[in-house]
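Worked example 3 (structure in, sequence out).
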């Protein structure tokens, strides 16, 4: 029950409620300092473009040699972004990762991943020695990359993002010594590519690295939490209103996702930006319902006759300056001659 203070002034009784001081609930949309700040940061960005965020680099990570882990979230879904994440800490700070609870992120519940992400950013023992970064790769960018004339596969998009984040950590001053990566494709080829780009690091690329190396688990948690919240705050520029963004997990086998795809097709323009229209699931849904479209292919064959080249009129001059040009075909066919003398 709320306490009420009673005062008597000039024979009148006045009821006054106690003042409760409340700070304004202000969230900085340019900095992710906790789980609470993650959603507003993402919502303030254009979701048709990629977004990169780097946490503050702990001072110790600039002075001491560090390990860095790389992993992704959302590679398979037909909906939403794919997120690449990195996490790093000094080689002798592994116990901080264990204390946070960094383990195979696929074995952790969404609630537990959120708690670890929040602790990583708010608890001093963690944020004083652990840094992280993510790249939110827009579904629009993924589809355009895979559909453009010089195609860029999802593996290439993934590797470019991973190497880009490592380079950003280097540029920010992180003293990287070892890199651990959850593989995309054959581990040997990926490792060779990374060593070629970063020859001074000890690099390990392995399958299921997030269940083997805690630093990769931390990167995976950052990526998964970021993707989850990117979907929660997704804004449809097409004007769609989906209550609680209830479009399912995004995986092709999810019945809620399938229903979203079939119910939200524009018969001419296809799907909203949330959908990776280069996925076969999306292509099949379009083939069943949308109008068929035909586009004229550019004429790549060389025309049989394109007329006389302009440069031809500047040819045929002799050393003495006399101009000898081939007679115009029209004049020949009509048996006409140039007349200069009358």
């Amino acid at each position: 029950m709320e306490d009420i203070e009673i005062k008597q002034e000039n024979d009148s009784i006045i009821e006054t409620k106690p003042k409760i001081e409340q700070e304004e609930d202000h969230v900085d949309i340019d900095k992710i300092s906790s789980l609470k700040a993650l959603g507003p940061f993402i919502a303030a960005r254009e979701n048709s473009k990629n977004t990169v965020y780097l946490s503050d680099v702990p001072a110790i990570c600039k002075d001491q040699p560090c390990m860095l882990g790389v992993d992704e979230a959302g590679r398979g879904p037909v909906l939403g972004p794919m997120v690449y994440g990195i996490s790093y800490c000094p080689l002798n700070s592994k116990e901080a990762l264990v204390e946070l609870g960094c383990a195979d992120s696929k074995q952790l519940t969404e609630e537990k991943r959120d708690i670890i992400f929040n602790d990583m950013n708010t608890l001093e023992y963690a944020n004083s020695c652990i840094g992280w970064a993510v790249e939110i790769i827009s579904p629009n960018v993924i589809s355009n990359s895979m559909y453009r004339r010089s195609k860029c596969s999802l593996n290439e998009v993934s590797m470019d993002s991973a190497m880009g984040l490592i380079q950003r950590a280097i540029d920010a001053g992180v003293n990287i010594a070892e890199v651990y990566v959850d593989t995309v494709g054959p581990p040997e080829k990926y490792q060779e590519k990374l060593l070629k780009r970063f020859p001074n690091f000890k690099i390990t690329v392995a399958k299921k690295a997030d269940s083997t190396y805690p630093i990769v688990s931390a990167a995976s948690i950052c990526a998964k939490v970021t993707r989850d919240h990117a979907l929660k705050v997704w804004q449809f520029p097409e004007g769609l209103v989906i209550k609680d963004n209830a479009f399912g997990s995004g995986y092709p086998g999810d019945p809620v996702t399938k229903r979203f795809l079939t119910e939200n097709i524009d018969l001419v323009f296809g799907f909203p930006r949330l959908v990776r229209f280069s996925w076969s699931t999306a292509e099949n849904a379009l083939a069943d319902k949308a109008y068929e479209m035909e586009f004229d292919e550019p004429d790549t064959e060389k025309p049989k006759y394109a007329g006389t080249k302009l440069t031809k009129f500047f040819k045929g001059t002799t050393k003495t300056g006399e101009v000898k040009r081939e007679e115009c075909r029209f004049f020949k066919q009509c048996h006409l001659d140039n007349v200069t003398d009358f």
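Notes: The chain has two domains: 2-232, 250-289. Strands lie at 5-9, 12-16, 51-54, 66-73, 82-90, 131-137, 176-182, 202-206.
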